[in-house]
Amino acid sequence: MKIIMLGAPGAGKGTQAKMIAEKYSIPHISTGDIFRSNIKNGTQLGMEAKKYMDQGLLVPDELTVKILLDRVAKEDCAGGYVLDGFPRTIPQAQVLDNALKEIDDKIDFAINVDVPDENIVRRMGGRRACLSCGATYHIEHIPPKKEGVCDACGKELVLRDDDKPETVKNRLDVYHQQTQPLIDFYEKKGILRTVDGTVDMKDVFAAITGILD
Ligand code: AP5
Ligand code: MG
Ligand code: ZN
């Protein structure tokens, strides 16, 4: 099963994608996580991506597309995957479509996690992320067992550089301009499914599994 997660920054794409990956035993592929791990390791790609991410802008398609296509070509993706944060522009969606067509394949579902902008800004300030394993927490809704420490791997939790309120506003603007058109794109293909992302994360997940099962 090949799934795309759509939704504004902070809608809960990552939270839900991790649960989907576990339940259906498929890899969770987040372009944001790939960039953050490159930034942490000081790679050339990381340094280039950081320039855009810190301003809340999209990393150029040329950089992003290649990374994603390399990743989905790996063996562990043969049985499907859940994409989180890709595609984010119409050109990215077209590149993915064409690459899949070449191997006579297609995306099964695009799940749109719907959360209004007002809720997003509140969520971001409370988010804490583990830059080692990609786990995310929220200081009120989903706190880690021990403050500031990742439950999954024991590493330190941080407030992401791009979760500052001014940057969140830019990310929302970029989302509305460049990413939201994908909702229409996948609707036209007949594979769009929208779930209410404002309810408890377990209920969001129940709605998603209701679609996928
Ligand atoms: P990326 O890492 O993809 O960030 P994003 O889309 O802005 O999304 P987030 O990770 O911030 O949010 P999320 O939807 O995953 O929510 P989460 O589950 O964490 O991208 C970062 C940057 O990288 C981009 O700005 C861009 O520069 C670059 N980039 C990445 N991909 C790219 C691409 N394809 N092309 C170009 N550039 C790219 O949840 C948010 C918070 O809410 C958490 O604290 C969580 O615990 C909490 N939460 C989750 N669900 C619920 C719930 N139901 N109720 C209450 N709280 C909840
Ligand atoms: Mg995420
Ligand atoms: Zn961790």
Structure description:
The protein is an alpha/beta fold. Helix content is 48%, strand content 15%. The chain is built from nine helices and eight strands. The strands form two sheets. Strands 2-3-1-4-8 form a five-stranded parallel β-sheet, sandwiched between helices. Strand 5 and strand 6 form a beta hairpin. Helix 1 (13-24) packs across helix 9 and helix 2 packs across helix 3. The structure holds BIS(adenosine)-5'-pentaphosphate, magnesium ion and zinc ion (ZN). Magnesium ion binds at residues 13-14, 30, 32, 84-85.
Q: What order do the strands of the largest sheet run in, or round the barrel if closed?
A: 2-3-1-4-8
What small molecules are bound in this structure?
BIS(adenosine)-5'-pentaphosphate, magnesium ion, zinc ion
Radius of gyration (Å): 16 Å
Query: Structural class of the secondary structure composition?
Result: alpha/beta
- The succession of helices and strands, N to C, reads EHEHHHEHEHEEEHHEH
Largest sheet properties = 5 strands, parallel
Cα-to-Cα separation, first versus last residue? 11 Å
- Roughly what fraction of the amino acids lie in strands? 15-25%
Mean pLDDT, to the nearest integer, reads 95
The backbone outline, from C-alpha atoms, is globular
The total count of helices amounts to: 9
Which regions contain 5 or more consecutive residues with pLDDT less than 50?
Answer: none
